[in-house]
Amino acid sequence: MQIKKAAEAAKNSRTIGLIYGFPGVGKTTAALSMPNPVLIDCERGIGRVNGALRTDFVELNSLDEFNLADLAGYDTIVFDTLGVLLELFDKKVKEINPKLVKTDGALSLQGYGTRKILFKNFISDLRKCGKNVLFLAHVAENKDGDITQYRPYSTGSSVADLQNDLDYMGFMQMRGGKRSISFSANDQYVAKNSLGLPQYIEVPEVFADNTFLTDIIVKGTEKRIAQEKEDSKKYLDLMSSAKVILASKKDLNEKTKAVMALPHLFDSKIRLWHALEALGKAQGLTFNRDKKVWEK
Fold first, then answer.
1. Same domain flag for 134 and 262
2. Greatest extent of the chain over all pairs of C-alpha atoms, in Å
3. DSSP secondary structure string, 78-106?
């Protein structure tokens, strides 16, 4: 068993996300601004993308046709749309076991359970493939009193299951005549933001080099990971310096002053204060908060 230091826990800059919105809002064009994408065109929608912005694509008719090895030359896999992709999973379940289909052609409860397992394994393989993955989805509307709620469209519990594996989920819509993507959930729509993305971004009307999401998601994530690695190293250096101070022959007031003057990060101040309190207790001292000194 190999034990690694905390500072080695660098996160992968590859992401898995979902963007949903109404037809025609520009989801596919935005998705193709991810780095070096290939479009898994389940919905035959590549023709609606501006010709200058189109990318290589696969017209997927069956899950048996999907092979990650064939996509080795690409950095991003875009699935358009999730709803139609799940129909291919339905088809696969029916091929595996026709008994999992009801008389009306829909999957039985057990059939949806089988689809859930297949889809979960599919997502697991995508997560391990070392590429960015972006699902596109249409909108499902639901009325809750006077509020219209928007959710990614799918059948069964697939979106809820997928949401646990997503790094981000955004609702794309028109606001004030401009396209936008919101990554912050509210009473009207669901969203997810585990990457520290802006809560709301405006989508440009013209994709000159079509690097919009590359700049926002990929480069933003790489920058955040680099900052986290730097902060983790600073944290370890800080705690090492504090350990030397706490073990020194200085009296507790000198130690406290020196420790509190360190450039604190994360939970360092509270952790080190607990260490000082433990030293004070061992020496029979209490901290006078008015005078800011340890005393008998």
1. no
2. 83
3. EEE-HHHHHHHHHHHHHHH-GGGB-TTSS
User: pLDDT-based confidence at 134, cuts 50/70/90?
Assistant: very high
CATH of the domain at 25: 3.40.50
Output the CA torsion sign for 160, 166, 168, 174: negative
For residue 269, pLDDT beyond 80: yes
User: Which residue, chain included where needed, has tokens 């908060």?
Assistant: 289
Mean pLDDT of the chain: 89
Q: Which residue has the higher pLDDT, 97 or 176?
A: 97
In this prediction, residue 11 carries a pLDDT of: 53
Angle between helices 268-282 and 252-260 (to 10 degrees): 180
The two structure tokens encoding residue 151: 């959710």
**Beta partners for residue 295, in sequence order:** 286
Residue 218: inside a domain: no
Residues 274-292 pLDDT 10s: 999 999 999 999 999 998 9
**215 assigned to some structural domain:** no
Containing structural domain, residue 273: 224-295
Q: Do 50 and 94 share a structural domain?
A: yes
C-alpha 195: how far from chain center: 6
Q: How far apart, in whole angstroms, are the C-alpha atoms of residue 81 and residue 18?
A: 10
Q: How confident is the model at residue 72 (pLDDT cuts 50, 70, 90)?
A: very high
Question: Rounded distance, CA 188 to CA 168, Å?
Answer: 17
